[in-house]
Amino acid sequence: MKYGITETVKTINSKIKINDIIYNIVEKKANAIKYFLEGEEFNQAIVFGAYLCGNFVADALTKDCDEVILVDVHPHLKEIIINEKIKFMDSSKFNLSLRNGELNPDLVVDLTGIGGLSPEIISKLNPSVLIVENPKGTFDKDINNIDNSVDRLNKGVKRGLLNTFRTSKVSKTSGSMTLVIDTVMDSCNDLKELDGVLYALPNLKYYEGILFHEKDIRKFIDEVNTPAITVSCLDEDLENEINNILLKNIDRIYSYVEKIK
Amino acid sequence: MKYGITETVKTINSKIKINDIIYNIVEKKANAIKYFLEGEEFNQAIVFGAYLCGNFVADALTKDCDEVILVDVHPHLKEIIINEKIKFMDSSKFNLSLRNGELNPDLVVDLTGIGGLSPEIISKLNPSVLIVENPKGTFDKDINNIDNSVDRLNKGVKRGLLNTFRTSKVSKTSGSMTLVIDTVMDSCNDLKELDGVLYALPNLKYYEGILFHEKDIRKFIDEVNTPAITVSCLDEDLENEINNILLKNIDRIYSYVEKIK
Amino acid sequence: MKYGITETVKTINSKIKINDIIYNIVEKKANAIKYFLEGEEFNQAIVFGAYLCGNFVADALTKDCDEVILVDVHPHLKEIIINEKIKFMDSSKFNLSLRNGELNPDLVVDLTGIGGLSPEIISKLNPSVLIVENPKGTFDKDINNIDNSVDRLNKGVKRGLLNTFRTSKVSKTSGSMTLVIDTVMDSCNDLKELDGVLYALPNLKYYEGILFHEKDIRKFIDEVNTPAITVSCLDEDLENEINNILLKNIDRIYSYVEKIK
Amino acid sequence: MKYGITETVKTINSKIKINDIIYNIVEKKANAIKYFLEGEEFNQAIVFGAYLCGNFVADALTKDCDEVILVDVHPHLKEIIINEKIKFMDSSKFNLSLRNGELNPDLVVDLTGIGGLSPEIISKLNPSVLIVENPKGTFDKDINNIDNSVDRLNKGVKRGLLNTFRTSKVSKTSGSMTLVIDTVMDSCNDLKELDGVLYALPNLKYYEGILFHEKDIRKFIDEVNTPAITVSCLDEDLENEINNILLKNIDRIYSYVEKIK
C-alpha cells in the first residue's frame, strides 16, 4: 500500500502478477494435453508455436518423450527456452529436416492458431497422435471463417482439439494473451464496483510488440513480472479482496482436449 | 498497422492518445469554469491542486485575471507549469503568504478533491467567487461519506460546484485520471465486440506513481504520449472505427458548474 | 422447482417477489425521510405523489403528524391508500382547499419527480420543513436539464433533497420503478454467469400502464405479487444462490436526505 | 407513444415484437439447415422437437420431402402445427411406428437439445443425412458436461451440427428462448444508455411455463404477440432508435451447420 495524491487515498497493487496469470493459463493448457495423452510415451514430439504456451507445453512433454522439438517461424524465440532437452527449430531448419527425412513424430501439437501451420505440413508429418489448438473463443463470424483448425486435424489414430474458454464470459480467442487481457479487464470492472474504490487500473502492455517487433525476450520477461492491477481506494485493507476477485476470474478459464473422430 | 504474430493478424494503434483524452477532459472542466464566470475579470485568482487539471485551469484563467496563483502540496509539480504568468506556491510558501496578508483573492478554484483542502483555509481566503470541484461520480457510500466539497463552499457571493460525469456510465470519481481510465476501458469493451477483433488492449499505466512517487514530470509527459488502445484484429481497415468508438466514449464526459445558494 | 421442457432442465422461481423489492425501496426512502426529520412532530404534512412511494411515506408520517394529506393528480390512486388516517386529495380538491386557506402545512414532502409539482405551489404552501425528491440517478444530460428539484426547494427553515442511488451501478432515475427494473435486470445478468444456468428471466411488466392507463389498482397489486426472476438451470439447488444475488443487488440501493442550505 | 405518469415522460413500445425475434431466430436455423442440405430431396424426414424451432423447420422441409414427421414427447404440441403436410407423432405413436418398421427416414433433424433424444434412437433410424442441434452457447462447464449432441451424430453419410451463437455476446445455450431473452435484455441495456431514457423494460414472460405447464398453446401465441421492449423516456421521437438497437442485437445471431466427419 502506498498513499495516492493525498493521504486519504491509498494505492494497492495486486499480489497476483501478469506473469502468474500467464503461468496459470499455459499450465491449464499443458494439463489438458497431458490428460488427453493418458500417460502414453512418445519417441518424437513436435510442438509448433513457441509463444506464449508452446515453450511450456514442450517442457511438460519432455518427461514422456525421448525427443521434443519446438518449431517457430521467429528464430529469436529460441532464447525463451530454458529446458535443455527441448530442441528448437526455426522455419528453415524445420524445412531442411523435413526434406532430409529426419522428422518422424508420433506426436504433433499445433499451437499456431489463426494464420498458423498449413494442413499440408501436418499431413506430411503423419503422426499417430495429433492435437491442434482451436483458436476460437466466443463466436465471431470473421474469426470463425478464417479458422482452419479442424482441417489441420487430418491425420492420426487419436486426434484432439485443444479448447480453452472463459466460462460465461466473452473472449474472442483462446490465445493466452487474449485470456490474460480479458481476465485482467473483467477483474478491473468487478473491482470498480467495490465500496470505496476510485479506480482499478489494468497494468497491461502490448507484450507481443516487445516479443515480435522489438524482439526483446528479456524485456518481455521483465514487463510481465508486474502486479496485474493497481487499485486506487479509500480502504487500505483491500488487498485480499483484490486477489480474490482476480482468482475468481482466473478460475473462469477452462482448457480441455475434445476428442475428434 | 503492423502484423501480429502471423501476417493474418494485424495490430492497430488508436490515433487518439492518452494525452488527447486527458486534454479533452481538462478542457471541458476549464470551459465549464469559464462559462460559470461569464467573462468576469479578477484581480487575484488562486487555484488549488496542480494535477491533473489545475495547471490547465490556471492557464485558462490568466486571460481574465491580473494574477493567477497555483497552489500544490507537491513542490515538484512546479515543473508542470509552462505559462509564465502563473505563480506557483507549495504549501509552505502559501502558508507564509497567507500569514503575511499577501493573499486577497476574489476568485478561488479548489480542485483538490478527496482529502484535499480544509474548509477553514477557504473560509480565511474569503473570495467573492468560489468554485469547488465535486470529486464524486456514480454513487459510492464510502466516497460519499468522506467527501466534504459542499462544506468547502462556505464563502462567496457566487458559489459553484464543478461536476464532471460520464453520461449513463459508471465512474466512481470526477478525477481526470478516473475518467481517462474508465473511458479507455469502456472503449476496449466496445471494441472487443466488433467482428474480427481478437482483443483490445488499454495502454494505461499508473501515471500517479510516476508523478507522485517517482516525481518524474518528464517521464509522465512521455508516457501519456502513447496510443490509448492497441487492437489485435483480422481487418486492417479498422482504424477509423477505433477512433470513432473512443470519440463516442469521450463524448460521454460532461462538465458543468452547478450554482449553489 | 419445476422441470423445464425435459427433466434434465429445472425451472426455479426466486423467493423474492417484485413486491418485496418495491417494499424494500419505499421503506429505504421512508426511513431516509424519518431520519432527516429527527423525531420532530408536525401539525399538517402534505405528501405530493401517491405512486409508488408516496402512499408508504404518508403512512410512515401518520405517527408523527396530526394530519397527513396525500395529493395526486390521478384521482383513482385514492384506492391505493389503506391507512385511514391519510386524507387523499386529487388536483381539484387540493386547489380548492388551497384557495380556501385550509392548507397550512408545517411539513411538505414532494415525491412527484420529473414533470411534477411546480415551484410556485411549494412556495405558496410555505412549510417550515421541506423535502423534495431528486429524480436524478446516474448522470444524463437531458434528465439533468429537465429536472428542477432544487428550484422547488425554495422555502423552509430546514430543506432536504431526497437522493436514492444504486452504488456503482447505472440507474437513470431514483424512481422506485426504475430501481426495481435495474435491480432485477442486473441480478439476471449476474445469474446468467453461474455454472449450469441456461437463462435468467426477469418477470417484469409495464406496471405503470396498469396503474395509469388501465387504472386498475387491483391488477397492479396482483401483478407485482410474482417471483422477480425465473431461472432455467441444470442444478435444482440454486434457490439460495438466486436469492443471495437478488439481495446483493437490492443492498446496492441507498436513500438519504441531503441537507440543503 | 403514450404519456407516462406525467406528460413530461413518454412511454414508447418497440415496433418489434417478441414474436418477430422468435421468427427471426427459427428462420435463421431453418435457413442454415436448408443451406446444408443443398437442395437435396428426401423421401421421409423426421424432425425431433416441436418447440420452439421444430415446427418451423418441419414446415420448411415440406418443400423438399415427400413426408415430414414431427416428433415431440408433449402430445399437446400437435396444436402448434399449421401446415397439414406435417405428420405429428408423440412418443407412444413414434415408438409404435418404429417397432412396426414404418420409419425409414433418409433425413433426421434432432432439435431436442439438452436432455433430449438418446443416441440409440438415432442409431436405429440410420438416416443418410443427419443434423443434430448443438445446444451449447458460450462455454459453461456443466452444460458442456451434460451435452451429448456429438454422440448423437452417430449415423449418416452426411452429418452436421447445427450451431447458433450470438457474436461477441454471452448466451449460455443456442435455444431459441435463451436467444430471445438475451437479445431483449442486451437491447434494454443498450437503450438505457441513450440520452433521456429513464428505463427500458423487457416484456418477457416464462413462456415455457405457458406451453409446458399450463399447456395453453393459444395463450402462448397471444403472449409473444407483444412489443419486445417498453421504454420510458423524455424524447417522443425515439421509436426508430429503439428498433435499430433491437435489430443490431438480432443481427448478432448466427446459425450454421458445421459439417462433421
Automatic annotation (TrEMBL), chains A, B, C, D:
It holds the Pfam family HcgC. It comes from the Archaea. This is DUF1188 domain-containing protein. It comes from Methanococcus aeolicus (strain ATCC BAA-1280 / DSM 17508 / OCM 812 / Nankai-3).
